[in-house]
Amino acid sequence: MRLIKKVLLQSALILVVGAGLLGCSVEEKPQGDKVLLVSFDGFRADYLSKADTPNFDKLVEQGVISEGLIPIFPSKTFPNYYAIATGLYPENSGFIGNSMYDTTMNARFTMGDRDQVENPAWYGGEPIWNTVEKNGKKAGTMFWVGSEAPIQGMRPTHWKPYDGSMPDSARIDSVIKWLSYENEKEVDLGTVYFSFVDSRGHRYGTDAPEVKEAIQRADDLVGYLMEQMEAKGLSDNTNLMIVSDHGMADVSRERIVVLDEMINPEDVEMIEYSPSVMMNVKEGKLDEVYSSLKANEEHFKVYKKEDIPERFHLKGHPRVPEILMVADVGYTINAREYFDRREGYPSGGAHGFDNQAPEMHALFVAKGPDFKSGYKMRPIENIHLYSMMAHLLQVQPAKTDGDLDSVKVMLKGN
Question: Which of 3.30.1360.180, 3.40.50.300, 3.40.50.2300, 3.40.50.2000 is the CATH number of 256-347?
Fold first, then answer.
């Protein structure tokens, strides 16, 4: 009898412990099996306060909003979209600017050069769509930096070369179709990108009526997206993340830094342009050029490569040129000849400033089965989003500079 009781007691303990372990497993496991990543380029963190945005407001009420998504430096488009995709700072991804020069490749990268945009040699690290595909799942990218190149010899199951003329609704329709296929073409991760908020900000400045119209246009698209997700049965199993790459700051002709007043522009080779200027210097001229810039350091900061602040996570990559100049927020750096040939330059808005500046902080809103409801959190760095997506998709992440612990507080059960 004692033996029977002992066996029954052990069995009961095993059941209790097993149930407890099972409960932990269920609690930690994400509830949604898909992720949809949407970006509106140049959507500053505070833009939702500048216009009526009922669809965004509904998402915020039912989901999570951050006070700001902190970009990596430089706060420019290509480096930040690739940072979101890989979770890497530029010194580890190699993506140090919208324009770059690589001495080993003897090649220059610019956003408009299709051959270089599609050249995988520029892209270090592992983007989230590769991680998804490596883990036996599928990804579909509707325009995302890096997705047009066969990085690591791979491509997403679905991808599109960038076409700015493609209608907004068609972009959404394509990704919704990929997510809702009932065959082997169905994807687990989808991305979609829109540029018009950034374009309006550059042209008109952050408080212009045209920018408010762009914000409302983005809100209308969010409403359309939510309708399509509901119609296709995606709302209950898809975690939606709406982000941007950077913010925007107003610039003007009254706030300029003229290189000719400090150095001979012929002594330098411009690699990346204002407001985060990267340049190489003619042989034998480095100390002279740097000393002159340093002596006139007003409305900008100047660094030799080895002295670039650690918080920029930049100087560790060989593509970084010899000198970095960072304009104060609102200022523009260029040569006199460039200013003289453009009477109205600069005007409107710009980005690329110090990533700690609030004007550079971007949008982050999320809603889905794994996100808390009505939750507002502090500003977060965009390098953590890769880890978040890998967790939500239940895939083994690559090594990154970000980590889930920095952002998991927005998830249910944390």
Answer: 3.30.1360.180
